[in-house]
Write a structure and sequence with these properties.
about 50% helix; mainly alpha
Length: about 190
């Protein structure tokens, strides 16, 4: 098999799962959502980044437009405060079982799948809300890759895109400045 034998297409998560299930594709790159296809004997997981470098993890964020943020700064702060309180509760190991039970009720994965995906990892690391140098480096790398592979024409300054002010205010108000470990750009 050579590179010419592979045809790559970009699919969202739900479409890639459906295409794998119906055998319209032979392989997909995905995340924890593939555990349920494995459990149904629809697919095999041939590689997992779970025990590999943390640079292969996914990151998420909450976006608001500049217009929304300027028009509703109090609502924006309230949202961030709520998300931070939720992250603090979820990162507490005493709540581990309850967190997984709540997530299992969404139907995304089973309780066993959530436990498997998070096994051996502290919740404080996986559920960190910090915009630390690791998270910033991941977004900078994504921008570099998008330009390199011609998915976008120009770069933008990630540091200017991320507004840490609301998070920093919430961390200070809740006295959580040192609750989550800060991860360096290299994942350590």
């Amino acid at each position: 098999m050579t590179e010419k034998d592979i045809k790559a297409i970009n699919l969202d998560t739900a479409t890639s799962q459906a295409a794998l299930t119906t055998k319209d594709v032979e392989a997909v790159f995905g995340g924890y959502e593939l555990l349920k296809l494995r459990d149904k004997d629809i697919a095999r997981i041939v590689y997992s980044s779970k025990n590999d470098s943390p640079i292969f993890t996914r990151q998420t964020h909450v976006l608001v437009t500049e217009n929304f943020e300027k028009k509703y700064p109090a609502a924006t702060q309230r949202l961030v405060n709520t998300l931070l309180r939720t992250a603090k509760w979820g990162a507490d190991e005493a709540n581990r079982e309850e967190v997984f039970n709540l997530w299992a009720h969404t139907g995304t994965l089973t309780l066993a799948n959530w436990k498997e995906d998070f096994s051996g990892e502290p919740l404080r690391i996986r559920l960190s809300p910090l915009f630390d140098s690791f998270l910033t480096a991941r977004y900078k790398d994504a921008v570099d890759q998008a330009v390199k592979f011609k998915l976008t024409r120009k770069r933008f300054d990630v540091d200017q895109w991320i507004d840490r002010s609301y998070l920093n205010t919430a961390l200070k108000e809740m006295k959580l400045e040192n609750y989550w470990p800060v991860t360096q750009a290299d994942g350590k």
